[in-house]
Design goal:
Elements lengths: L1 H37 L3 E7 L13 E8 L5 E9 L3 E11 L28 H29 L11
Antiparallel strand pairs: 1-2, 2-3, 3-4
């Protein structure tokens, strides 16, 4: 009788694993969309990329290729890592299409780079402090890479495109 139950047990476990994965994917999509909405952006697509950039060494995070439109109307593509406890992290975020220019005579909308706290008092919160530090670190890293690339180009060395970014 045990031999007869074996195939059913295996199929049952596979179905359970699939259901858990589908639920996790739905929760991930909600988490990513909420994260982008907090930044004034709207997610336009999300695709699971189990072997996407950063998969090696990643144990519990799931990786997605996402597209979104930022608050200024620019279309982006990025790699997103997320899990229930790790939050949302975007990498390789780049603009794939610039926003249409505003109508002439209409001044552009100015938004603060680092928004004020929810209390409305302009005081930084731990979350905005962390976001600010992350943004500054990313900008400093990008500036350092660009300076190195400029120096290599000036010195006449050929730049290996795989080493950039």
């Amino acid at each position: 009788m045990e031999n007869e139950m074996g195939p059913f047990l295996i199929v049952g476990m596979l179905v359970l694993a699939l259901v858990i994965r589908l639920i996790a994917g739905a929760m991930d999509g909600d988490r990513i969309a909420h994260y982008l909405q907090e930044k004034g952006a709207t997610m336009t697509s999300k695709h699971w990329s189990p072997f996407g950039k950063g998969w090696f060494g990643s144990e519990k995070e799931r990786i997605y290729s996402i597209s979104y439109v930022d608050r200024d109307g620019h279309e982006h593509e990025a790699i997103c890592k997320t899990s229930l406890f790790a939050g949302v992290y975007l990498t390789d975020d780049h603009i794939v299409r610039q926003a249409r220019p505003k109508a002439e005579g209409v001044p552009p909308v100015r938004r603060p780079l680092f928004p004020a706290s929810d209390a409305g008092d302009g005081a930084p919160t731990p979350e905005t402090d962390r976001d600010t530090a992350i943004r500054i670190a990313r900008l400093e890293s990008e500036n350092r890479q660009l300076r190195e690339e400029i120096e290599r180009l000036r010195s006449g060395h050929r730049v290996d495109e795989t080493s950039i970014g």
